[in-house]
């Protein structure tokens, strides 16, 4: 069974006790570990209890294909469910997992983690199609999801932060959930804020936020998207080189550019309908970080609606090309960004 993005949180908050196995996979290693641990805590009162937890490696399951089934069939010496965890799995483990699920013995939960699995992966197909087991994908946070996560974190820790703080963090973070979580924990530690604190809220200013997160990665997808729509090929080329070094994927880059173009198209459309600029900008979610407003407005003037739609279609076609097996995906994404950037400087 495949968990849709909007249903993932409900699955994580209260795991269905009838589930026999869960697969967590994707590109965001930090998010994978976070969700893995959320599920594990629902099964194990003590996360490292050797009587209730069995850790398996792909090498062990390949040497002994029946090992998963044996561990799932074993009973807990202290009562309750056991957790059988298999990390870094791949398609070579699919057969052993199918065998274990066919046995239908014991009350253990099989928790499997994997990297980025292709749509045709046998492991992914198994968990997405079969009933009684669950597949959860983990990819980099969208701006909307990240903004919601930051706001939710501040609420739990009783931290009072303005919209400009959330907007700033949304633009600075998000490539990896583990990095995002670490930055938020740094902020809560600095403010001496504790989860569930019912006292007076701790106030977080923009200046404090910038100082506390200054050692985070200075490259964001927002930087690339802004340079793409801003007719700045020199800066864009440097950002793309850095993205390659940092391992940022081509699809992530193209989708950030698509998001930027859609933002420009939304505001441009509202203005063409007669709304003043300031009012049209209020429709953006998340709201613009105030220092980005000048660039955004400048780019808006350079992009008529027809050209925005053409650029957006070009970026979508490039994403499809990147997904073809064996394609030079990063080269395609880079060329697409540079082509769009050049188009932004053409006369209207």
Overview features:
alpha/beta; Zinc Finger, Delta Prime, domain 3; 3 domains; 5-stranded parallel beta sheet; 7 strands
Q: What's the SSE blueprint?
A:
Blueprint: H1 8-13, E1 21-26, H2 29-43, E2 53-56, H3 58-63, H4 67-73, E3 83-89, H5 94-103, E4 109-114, H6 122-129, E5 133-138, H7 143-156, E6 159-161, H8 163-172, H9 177-190, E7 202-204, H10 206-212, H11 221-229, H12 233-246, H13 250-272, H14 277-281, H15 290-302, H16 305-322, H17 329-343
Parallel strand pairs: 1-4, 1-5, 2-3, 3-4, 6-7
Helix pairs in contact: 4-5, 7-8, 11-12, 11-13, 11-17, 12-17, 13-16, 13-17, 16-17
Descriptive overview:
The protein has 348 residues and is α/β, with parallel strands linked by helices. It folds into 3 domains: 5-138, P-loop containing nucleotide triphosphate hydrolases (Rossmann fold); 143-212, Helicase, Ruva Protein, domain 3 (Orthogonal Bundle), CATH 1.10.8; 221-343, Zinc Finger, Delta Prime, domain 3 (Up-down Bundle). The chain has 17 helices and 7 strands. It has helices at 8-13, 29-43, 58-63, 67-73, 94-103, 122-129, 143-156, 163-172, 177-190, 206-212, 221-229, 233-246, 250-272, 277-281, 290-302, 305-322, 329-343; strands at 21-26, 53-56, 83-89, 109-114, 133-138, 159-161, 202-204. The strands form 2 sheets. A 5-stranded parallel β-sheet has the order 2-3-4-1-5, with helices on both faces. Strands 6-7 form a two-stranded parallel sheet. The radius of gyration is 23 Å and the shape is globular.
